[in-house]
Amino acid sequence: MIRFEQVNRDIMDEDMTEMLRNNPPDVVYAAFRDAFFQGAIRMFQRDNEMKNIVLTDAEARDKATRHFFNRALRDARGDHI
Known about the structure:
Layout: H1 2-11, H2 14-22, H3 25-43, H4 48-56, H5 58-77
Protein name: Type I restriction enzyme, R subunit
Organism: Paracoccus isoporae
């Protein structure tokens, strides 16, 4: 999960934050998912075990992506618990 935290931080630039802040979740999820997946691949290029999980385990990938999407959405909108 720590590695995914880094991916999330890396993709949350000003544009992604604004997109999450100003659009409904169902509209922005696909863009976040794609950026998260690309970021995960870049992060895990040197780590074959994690790379295989990211590329082959769709359920694990989707769960991680949804978790970090929801976190990014809350952060972008200032909905802190």
